[in-house]
Request: fold
Amino acid sequence: MTLHIPFDNTYAALPPVFYSKQAPVPVKTPALVAYNSALGEVLGITSGEAEDMAAVFAGNALPMGADPLAQLYAGHQFGNYNPQLGDGRAILLGEVVGPDGLRRDIQLKGSGRTPYSRGGDGRAWLGPVLREYVVSEAMHALGIPTTRALAAATTGETVWREEGGLPGAVLTRVASSHLRVGSFQIFASRGEQAALRQLTDYALQRHYPEADGPMGLLRSVRDAQSELVSAWMSVGFIHGVMNTDNSSISGETIDYGPCAFMDVYHPQTVFSSIDRTGRYAYSNQPDIAVWNLAQLATALIQQAEDPQAMVEEATEIVHGMPALTEAAWLRRFGAKIGLADPAREDMTLITDLLSLMAEGRADFTNIFKALADDIQPGHGRARDQVLAPEAFDAWADGWRARLAREAEPEAVMAAANPVYIPRNHQIEAMIASAVAGDYAPFERLNTVLADPYQVHESAEDLRRPPAADEVVKATFCGT
Ligand code: AMP
Ligand code: MG
Reply:
């Protein structure tokens, strides 16, 4: 084996109640289609010969030091409690501590059946694998906490989905851990207090060593999640499936299923084909994050001798979340319009703009970027982005008056407004090309999205919103 991954596993050393040891299921013809060498270096991995890389990242060979397992968890899916989920198509190979001193999980996704697969095949097809690769790496480049993509491999096998037979693939995902709200819920609902306590200690040590006890953990997760959800809002991201099993303890974006970045702004936008009631619509995300935190609180208090004694503090922590999210939201959206230190009075300037954008069917990313360019009069033409430019002009007068009190609005806006986001129609086109054997669009998207705040001369097309016939109305789990 020429590939070397410096594993240092701690989760596998926990008692077996937390997982099932399980090796990935070998595939027919492994082929490596992507390897993120920059991330490999962050993890301290020494890459090897092509054949070894393909074998490892498709699940056909276990690198030295791996201790593969499927993690156990439960979760509320669309508000309904499912008492047992777990990794049904993923395998944790192990953990590494990179040269930066940070511990991270390395997980294969789409690596075959596990004891938690229920009716599923444990596999993934190439489309969602490449989608997660591109979108998670784009999220990272935008500066938003997220799992990352280390590799993608095809399996040479056919995966059967509603659409028919599709090429199978495996994604190698990296996370600061895969602990979720659902990881705690399962032991709380089963009344397994010792396991709950042990997992709480583990999570504290791994993610929040400065915090203390179950309420310290709850508070830390709250702070991380309120930052995360406001960051999503600021780039027009819709997670799509904010179930408690997809809500990470570390505060990273996890599980890129039917997610999307908005083109035209509308607060009620929903993409996910399975979200029939709009539970996870764009503007509902801050409230859902509170709902998920309340589920974590409910689980964590079960470890106390007298859970009732913790209720008051837990309630206070959960109730504190909306104000934190709003403060983070104000800071981020303030920056988007050039305000370095926005005050509460600036809120209406932002919400008025958002109303104009919704009524005027503005492209979320492009109007903010045009506004940034508009600081040099006549350059960006944000007014052209809305259907009713006169209403916009009145807003812009007030905005310019407010900007007069700012020292460096140009720099503030440049750092807060990306030029490029992974647009759905471009992702769909990239997937279609890859399925036909052409990975050039995949590589090009990765290159441009790795540097999203700069204009790339040759990538003007990637700024374009979809034409009427290119609009993607729904995204699918498709896993
Ligand atoms: P998700 O909606 O992707 O968060 O997945 C929810 C649950 O369904 C998790 O327990 C997954 O492991 C499981 N699951 C999703 N797709 C599959 C599949 N193809 N085979 C087995 N389990 C799956
Ligand atoms: Mg999930």
The mean pLDDT is 96. The pocket of adenosine monophosphate (ligand 1) is lined by residues 85-89, 116-117, 120-123, 241, 245-246, 255, 257, 477, 479 (CB under 6 Å).
